[in-house]
């Protein structure tokens, strides 16, 4: 038989938020391959894609893809259903729940894997169609503390600079809590090249992660002690006169308060609290203080703590003290996780405390603007954050849920408890590309299209809005998340099908409501293949490569020093649980692994969960490399392979977050950061024993 034509789509990677662009090839429903885009403009992949970008697309071809809606019967088994049956049932059940338990007894979860347009519609479905402010997404679990801290200090909760021209060209780096080489590989390549060309790099981390191999100095920190060493650096820099007095005087507020707060953090005290030797602290502080430009880069090693917001307040204070904001090649750079967590998880407002564009849902002027556009007023209150939603399920107050493209049964802390909570729901609908661990709990499952099958935009970690385009059709009866939401809304009488001819109409609505996206349209994105970086406020605005050149995002234009108090980890090792566990990512996998565990080329590299154990500790416990061990915390226990290596101190072990068997979140704890509600994933007390 004759083969049909090969489609080529110029698109953006579905994995991490570096946002590499490539050409994706597909034919007859099968994704065939990837070729890095012929551009050196966006963002960083004039090198190449990483292994996930190159081979990771194969998840879309998996035989496990959902192709038809599923409804769970009384026997607990799923049966195939028509779209009408499934959508009618969701409407019937959510309406029933709301009639019986009140409008706010339902919640919606959005997905950073989906496009901006889909996330915008998801929160609109929650707020307008269901009338609930209870909408959240997995950004709560990764960088909510970053966003909270940066909004307080600088005004916008986002990376301030560009990957290529700023991060790739700076004079100095302070990288902390980021396994950049494995989690953001192409960005790491850019950094390593710049270090080879002469930039200084300091890495502070409990684990000697890959990027540390390229550093001028690696400093091992005790888990959960970051505020102490950062405050210590600030103190040293100010005392040595290495701070940027002019910048502080003209562009900031509250410096005296900061000076007072960091005073107790002498080098001796810092060494005692954090394990960082005085000489290392002083060497890093001096080099950073003397550098013309410095980039402060971090990821979840800083954010996922019960004091995550304080960590990022401290780091931003350090960047401000040294005058490293509002200029090129400098600034604070949160390396965001999922492909569209900046746009879909943040900018589009699927969050209980933010309408799209980080607008206040309790502000009358904002509400009126949305009411005018939507024809109805959104709920004028703050809803439940994701961890609160799970608490309310357990308490029996939250009864119905609609989850789009997320897998909280693996990503929440203490997942045995999360499973119990989700089991308490009267009704759960899940929309996804696979029958995920969460979808197994659902009453109705809707088959969604994957990234290679849809048109839309996503916004990468440097605020760059770029296209994703389809190379293939979705399998079977699967539909794009946007089409599903449009069909679903129609059950409640909303005619979104006539309102939105396609995702470009949704972007037009976004641009009318969200000033940061005011100048963004599909026409402009077609004309600007490098994308547009927000704020892009009107059609003449070329976008903003780096933030705060003309002032910080406050009425007076000044940044705020918000001093950070020190508090150590919540759960400290004791006799029963003598080790500290940290969780994280590996190069070959992605988040809860729903996609990468279905890619043979990636599974060949890392086929199962493991725990890293220092050789001294392994000897003490009596295990050898490759043996299975039991890891136990106060929440549960798992059995995983021991990987004996010396990346961390003997008292610290590490388990990746990507697997169902040996799921690290069976061990992690509920404790939340009070400011951002991010859980303390990064420090858990455990014991390790031979099986
Ligand atoms: Fe995709 Fe990130 Fe790899 Fe680039 S670095 S190819 S965006 S996973």
Automatic annotation (TrEMBL):
Residues 6-64 form the 4Fe-4S Mo/W bis-MGD-type domain. GO terms for molecular function: 2 iron, 2 sulfur cluster binding; 4 iron, 4 sulfur cluster binding; formate dehydrogenase (NAD+) activity; metal ion binding. Its cofactor is [4Fe-4S] cluster; Mo-bis(molybdopterin guanine dinucleotide). Its EC number is 1.17.1.9. The keyword Iron-sulfur applies. It is an enzyme of class 1 (oxidoreductase). Keywords: 2Fe-2S, 4Fe-4S, Iron, Iron-sulfur, Metal-binding, Molybdenum, Oxidoreductase, Repeat. In the C-terminal section; belongs to the prokaryotic molybdopterin-containing oxidoreductase family. This is Formate dehydrogenase subunit alpha. It comes from Halobium palmae. The chain holds residues 380 to 1070 of 1103 of the full protein.
């Amino acid at each position: 038989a004759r083969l049909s034509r090969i489609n080529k789509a110029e698109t953006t990677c579905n994995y991490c938020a570096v946002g590499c662009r490539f050409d994706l090839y597909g034919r007859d429903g099968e994704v065939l391959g990837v070729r890095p885009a012929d551009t050196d403009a966006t963002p960083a992949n004039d090198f190449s894609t990483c292994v996930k970008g190159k081979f990771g697309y194969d998840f879309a071809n998996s035989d496990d893809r959902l192709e038809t809606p599923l409804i769970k019967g009384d026997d607990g088994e799923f049966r195939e259903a028509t779209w009408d049956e499934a959508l009618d049932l969701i409407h019937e059940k959510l309406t029933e729940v709301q009639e019986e338990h009140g409008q706010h007894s339902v919640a919606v979860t959005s997905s950073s894997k989906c496009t901006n347009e889909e996330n915008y519609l998801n929160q609109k479905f929650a707020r307008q169609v269901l009338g609930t402010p209870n909408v959240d997404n997995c950004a709560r679990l990764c960088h909510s503390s970053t966003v909270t801290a940066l909004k307080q200090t600088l005004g916008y909760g986002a990376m301030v600079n560009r990957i290529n021209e700023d991060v790739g060209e700076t004079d100095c780096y302070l990288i902390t809590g980021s396994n950049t080489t494995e989690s953001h590989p192409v960005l790491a390549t850019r950094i390593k090249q710049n270090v080879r060309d002469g930039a200084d790099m300091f890495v502070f981390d409990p684990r000697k992660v890959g990027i540390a191999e390229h550093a001028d100095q690696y400093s091992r920190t005790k888990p959960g002690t970051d505020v102490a060493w950062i405050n210590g650096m600030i103190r040293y820099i100010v005392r040595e006169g290495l701070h940027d007095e002019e910048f502080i005087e003209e562009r900031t507020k509250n410096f005296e308060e900061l000076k007072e707060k960091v005073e107790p953090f002498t080098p001796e005290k810092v060494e005692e609290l954090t394990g960082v030797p005085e000489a290392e602290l002083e060497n890093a502080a001096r080099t950073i203080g003397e550098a013309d430009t410095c980039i402060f880069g971090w990821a979840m090693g800083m954010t996922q703590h019960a004091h995550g917001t304080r960590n990022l307040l401290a780091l931003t204070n350090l960047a401000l003290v040294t005058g490293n904001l509002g200029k090129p090649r400098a600034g604070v750079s949160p390396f965001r996780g999922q492909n569209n967590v900046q746009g879909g998880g943040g900018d589009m407002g699927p969050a209980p405390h933010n309408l799209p564009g980080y607008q206040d849902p309790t502000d009358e002027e904002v509400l009126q603007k949305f009411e005018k556009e939507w024809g109805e007023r959104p709920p004028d209150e703050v809803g439940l954050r994701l961890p609160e939603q799970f608490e309310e399920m357990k308490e029996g107050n939250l009864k119905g849920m609609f989850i789009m493209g997320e897998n909280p049964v693996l990503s929440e802390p203490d997942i045995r408890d999360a499973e119990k909570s989700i089991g308490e729901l009267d009704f759960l609908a899940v929309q996804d590309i696979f029958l995920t661990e969460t979808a197994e709990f659902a009453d109705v499952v809707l088959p969604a299209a994957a990234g290679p099958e849809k048109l839309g935009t996503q916004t990468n970690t440097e605020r760059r809005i770029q296209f994703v385009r389809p190379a293939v059709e979705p399998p079977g009866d699967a539909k794009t998340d946007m089409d599903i939401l449009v069909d679903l809304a129609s059950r409640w009488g909303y005619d979104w099908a006539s309102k939105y001819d396609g995702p470009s109409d949704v972007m037009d609505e976004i641009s009318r409501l969200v000033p940061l996206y005011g100048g963004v349209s599909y026409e402009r994105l077609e004309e600007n293949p490098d994308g547009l970086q927000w704020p892009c406020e009107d059609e003449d605005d070329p976008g903003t490569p780096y933030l705060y050149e003309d002032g910080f995002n406050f009425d007076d234009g000044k940044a705020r020093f918000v001093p950070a108090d020190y508090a150590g980890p919540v759960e400290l090792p004791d006799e029963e649980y003598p080790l500290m566990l940290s969780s994280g990512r590996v190069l070959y996998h992605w988040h809860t692994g729903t996609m990468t565990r279905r890619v043979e080329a990636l599974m060949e590299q890392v086929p199962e969960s493991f725990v890293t154990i220092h050789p001294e500790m392994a000897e003490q416990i009596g295990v050898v490399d490759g043996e299975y061990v039991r890891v136990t915390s106060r929440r549960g226990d798992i059995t995983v392979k021991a990987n004996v290596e010396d990346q961390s101190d003997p008292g610290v072990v590490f388990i990746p977050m990507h697997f169902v068997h040996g799921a690290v979140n069976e061990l992690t704890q509920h404790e939340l950061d009070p400011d951002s509600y991010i859980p303390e994933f990064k420090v858990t007390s455990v014991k390790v024993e031979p099986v």
